[in-house]
Design a protein that fits this description.
The chain is α+β, with helices and mostly antiparallel strands and 405 residues long. The protein folds into two domains: 75 residues, OB fold (Dihydrolipoamide Acetyltransferase, E2P) (Beta Barrel), CATH 2.40.50; 220 residues, 2-Layer Sandwich (Chloramphenicol Acetyltransferase), CATH 3.30.559.10. It is built from nine helices and 18 strands. The strands form four sheets. Strands 9, 12, 13, 14, 15, 16, 17 and 18 form an eight-stranded mixed sheet that branches. A four-stranded antiparallel sheet has the order 1-8-6-3, with no helix packed on it. It is extended. About 3% of the residues have low confidence.
């Protein structure tokens, strides 16, 4: 019996996928549930498992756009598992006949004269200005004299190719990357996007992590990172400024009473934005565990479309790559995104004196169509206040209870 394998629907509103990679070859024997291909949708990269065991015949090429429900391969379920093939004998190359080496032609050495290696006055001026030794320049003039042209050629030029590699390669963008590109351009063109900045003294969070991170990890099996503090601070600020937790739908503004926080993570196929659902109900341990789970699934290419659908606000951490400051782009149809950056010891004024503190610059990009300056600046200030006073504003004064220790 020959089974026709059709492209399953990866999620609502997705009508086609692209064959990113075949994990098997035409004519291979595949086992049931074995991953046979990776397919890109406009939201995620998914694995396509074999529905039955048998010999596979591929019906689509890598890079083909295939509609949902279309046949991509055939599996002959009546075929028996082939016996193990004997290892192929290594083909030994016949020894190459050594060709007789040509005797190098003898060249008469050039006769050295007083002019050999001596620059002309014009050449000497150029070499002196550029700090180039005359001995490093080959003269082409009479008796080896260095001419003005020799000196000009010896001066490095930024605009002139110097013999290095100048190759290029061309590869097709995946469907996921093309969709991300479309969404980013759409966000720039269709929103009134502005960015406001602030700085955060991370000293209080550093002290808490240094004191409790070992105990936290030993009890909960996850690290006490920065994401839980930032997620908690964002949730508090969203509840104070609900306009930032809103989005435009036609002529209406939808405001949510829950906080589904999207977190931007780097996956093998590019940027992915899985969602922490109802983050307002999670503890520090709950946030860290969910961040770890989603990051691992994204890294391993196991993230599903449902896990990346929705979200009311996004947090992006460019600091892990060393970014000092950036203007993050809104993740539509959301209206706001918080950009985290690297933490650097900087000089700040504290109690009227100069002090050194670990400081992070933060950025909020927002859609000015529904978020005004008061809400945007107030939101970012609320995030800053919570991060600089986490015990009082995020832990109700009880660190042990908040960290479930």
């Amino acid at each position: 019996m020959v089974l026709e394998m059709k492209v399953p629907s990866p999620g609502e509103s997705i009508t086609e996928v692209e064959i990113a990679e075949w994990l098997v070859e035409d004519g291979d024997y595949v086992e049931k549930d074995q991953a046979i291909a990776e397919v890109d949708s406009d939201k995620a990269t998914l694995e396509l498992p074999a529905e039955e065991s048998g010999i596979i015949t591929l019906k689509a090429e890598v890079g083909d756009a295939v509609a949902v429900g279309e046949v991509v391969c055939l599996i002959d379920t009546s075929a028996k598992r082939p016996e193990g093939d004997a290892p192929k004998a290594d083909k030994k190359e016949a020894p190459k006949k050594e060709e007789p080496k040509e005797e190098p032609k003898k060249t008469e050495p050039k006769k050295e004269t007083y002019a050999s290696g001596t620059p002309s006055p014009a050449a000497k001026k150029i070499l002196d200005e550029k700090g180039i030794e005359a001995s490093s320049v080959a003269g082409s003039g009479r008796d080896g004299r260095i001419t003005k042209e020799d000196a000009v050629k010896a001066v490095p030029s930024m605009g002139t190719p110097t013999g290095g590699s100048r190759g290029e390669s061309r590869s097709k963008l995946s469907m996921l990357r093309r969709k991300v590109a479309e969404r980013l351009v759409s966000a720039k063109n269709e929103t009134a996007m502005l960015t406001t900045f602030n700085e955060v003294d991370m000293s209080a969070i550093f002290e808490l992590r240094n004191e409790y991170k070992e105990e936290f990890k030993e009890k909960h099996g996850v690290s006490l990172g920065f994401m839980s503090f930032f997620t908690k601070a964002v949730i508090r600020a969203l509840q104070m400024y609900p306009a930032v937790n809103s989005m435009i739908d036609g002529k209406e503004m939808i405001t949510y009473d829950f906080c589904d926080i999207s977190i931007a993570v780097s996956g093998p196929k590019g940027l992915m934005v899985p969602v922490i659902r109802n983050a307002e109900n999670l503890t520090f341990r709950g946030v860290e565990a969910e961040v770890k789970r989603l990051a691992i699934r994204a890294r391993d290419g196991q993230i599903t479309v449902d896990e990346m659908t929705g979200g009311t606000f996004t947090i992006s951490n460019g600091g892990v790559f060393g970014s000092m400051l950036s203007t993050p782009i809104i993740n539509p149809p959301q209206s706001g995104i918080l950009g985290m950056h690297n933490i650097v010891d900087r000089a700040i004024v504290r109690d009227g004196a100069i002090a050194i503190a670990p400081v992070m610059y933060v950025a909020l990009s927002y859609d000015h169509r529904i978020i005004d300056g008061r809400e945007s600046v107030g939101f970012l200030v609320a995030v800053k206040e919570a991060l600089e006073s986490p015990k009082e504003l995020l832990m109700d004064g009880n660190v042990k209870k908040a960290l479930e220790l």
